[in-house]
């Protein structure tokens, strides 16, 4: 299993980082994309994902490459645990808010029609959720009142004792995991139903064309998230119901493997869900294929190669 994880993460990591930088560059420096309210939460998610990609994923590869033989300091283990769990849960919470906010942007756009309304209904919720998530998990991981224990043989070598407290288990497990997943499922399905209803029942074709990009952008991200994260949530609920981890260890291992794919695949989904970026990517790949095709083809075959590329 470790070798599968190593090669899966390794093959995806570098392309994912490149794609993250590409998408962020376009979202930040193309004015229309930067000013679009629906892109703001995705910019935040991409920054968080990029932070994880240049920290915990290389650390994981190092850990798997050396079969877990790695002596780490306490502070390093705390930072790793904070990034691996705390920042990732913040990622999930922000995505849950994105599914709620998308209803506002599509069906109640007057709620964000002025600067004041945008401040209270668009910017402040994002800032509040980021501060809440960071403060909550900084306290959990760096200010635990109990004795620190390091697990040298485990990849995540630090487990804060506060996460074992009953109240924290309920809050972190129920609110941060189960409730956020339910929000993503319910509001994503509701968005699809409302959009289809407007298009075919109320005949608001103009609105459909206007908001189709926002709908596709969110639903594609939600589908990726549910494929990669829903199995882990399901295993977690089964464990809460009293079934011990030893009985579901195989399912738990595979579900954890899938959760790490969420961050790696998100930049590709984000790029393909935006028509402007999708068009750019297609042009880049076409140019790359034409350049390589002409450069490698012998003189007699160059005309044929160009024709073949042109037909495609």
TrEMBL record:
<feature type="transmembrane region" description="Helical">
    <location>
        <begin position="150"/>
        <end position="171"/>
    </location>
</feature>
<keyword id="KW-0472">Membrane</keyword>
<feature type="transmembrane region" description="Helical">
    <location>
        <begin position="218"/>
        <end position="239"/>
    </location>
</feature>
<feature type="transmembrane region" description="Helical">
    <location>
        <begin position="74"/>
        <end position="100"/>
    </location>
</feature>
<keyword id="KW-0297">G-protein coupled receptor</keyword>
<keyword id="KW-1003">Cell membrane</keyword>
<feature type="transmembrane region" description="Helical">
    <location>
        <begin position="251"/>
        <end position="274"/>
    </location>
</feature>
<feature type="transmembrane region" description="Helical">
    <location>
        <begin position="7"/>
        <end position="28"/>
    </location>
</feature>
<keyword id="KW-0675">Receptor</keyword>
<feature type="transmembrane region" description="Helical">
    <location>
        <begin position="120"/>
        <end position="143"/>
    </location>
</feature>
<dbReference type="Pfam" id="PF00001">
    <property type="entry name" value="7tm_1"/>
</dbReference>
<protein>
    <recommendedName>
        <fullName>G-protein coupled receptors family 1 profile domain-containing protein</fullName>
    </recommendedName>
</protein>
<keyword id="KW-0812">Transmembrane</keyword>
<dbReference type="InterPro" id="IPR000276">
    <property type="entry name" value="GPCR_Rhodpsn"/>
</dbReference>
<dbReference type="InterPro" id="IPR017452">
    <property type="entry name" value="GPCR_Rhodpsn_7TM"/>
</dbReference>
<feature type="transmembrane region" description="Helical">
    <location>
        <begin position="40"/>
        <end position="62"/>
    </location>
</feature>
<dbReference type="GO" id="GO:0004930">
    <property type="term" value="F:G protein-coupled receptor activity"/>
</dbReference>
<keyword id="KW-1133">Transmembrane helix</keyword>
<feature type="transmembrane region" description="Helical">
    <location>
        <begin position="177"/>
        <end position="197"/>
    </location>
</feature>
<dbReference type="GO" id="GO:0005886">
    <property type="term" value="C:plasma membrane"/>
</dbReference>
<keyword id="KW-0807">Transducer</keyword>
<feature type="domain" description="G-protein coupled receptors family 1 profile">
    <location>
        <begin position="19"/>
        <end position="270"/>
    </location>
</feature>
């Amino acid at each position: 299993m470790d070798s599968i994880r190593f090669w899966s993460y390794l093959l995806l990591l570098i392309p994912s980082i490149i794609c993250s930088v590409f998408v962020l560059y376009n979202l930040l420096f193309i004015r229309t994309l930067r000013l679009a309210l629906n892109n703001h939460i995705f910019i935040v998610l991409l920054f968080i994902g990029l932070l994880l990609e240049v920290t915990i994923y290389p650390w994981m590869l190092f850990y798997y490459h050396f079969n877990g033989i790695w002596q780490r300091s306490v502070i390093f283990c705390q930072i790793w645990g904070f990034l691996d769990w705390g920042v990732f849960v913040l990622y999930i919470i922000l995505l849950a808010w994105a599914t709620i906010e998308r209803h506002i942007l599509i069906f109640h756009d007057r709620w964000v029609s002025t600067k004041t309304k945008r401040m209270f209904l668009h910017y402040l919720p994002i800032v509040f959720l980021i501060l809440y998530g960071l403060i909550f998990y900084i306290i959990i991981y760096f200010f635990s009142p109990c004795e620190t224990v390091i697990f040298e043989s485990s990849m995540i070598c630090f487990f804060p004792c506060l996460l074992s407290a009953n109240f924290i288990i309920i809050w972190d497990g129920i609110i941060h995991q189960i409730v956020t997943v339910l929000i993503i499922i319910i509001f994503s399905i509701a968005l699809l139903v409302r959009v289809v209803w407007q298009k075919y029942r109320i005949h608001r074709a103009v609105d459909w064309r206007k908001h189709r990009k926002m709908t596709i952008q969110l639903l594609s991200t939600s589908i990726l998230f549910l494929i990669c994260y829903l199995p882990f949530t399901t295993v977690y609920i089964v464990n809460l119901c009293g079934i011990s981890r030893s009985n579901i260890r195989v399912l738990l291992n595979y579900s954890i493997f899938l959760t790490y794919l969420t961050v790696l695949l998100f930049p590709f989904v984000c790029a393909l869900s935006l028509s402007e970026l999708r068009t750019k990517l297609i042009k880049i790949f076409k140019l790359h294929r034409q350049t390589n095709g002409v450069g490698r083809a012998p003189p007699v075959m160059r005309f044929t190669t160009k024709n073949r590329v042109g037909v495609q």
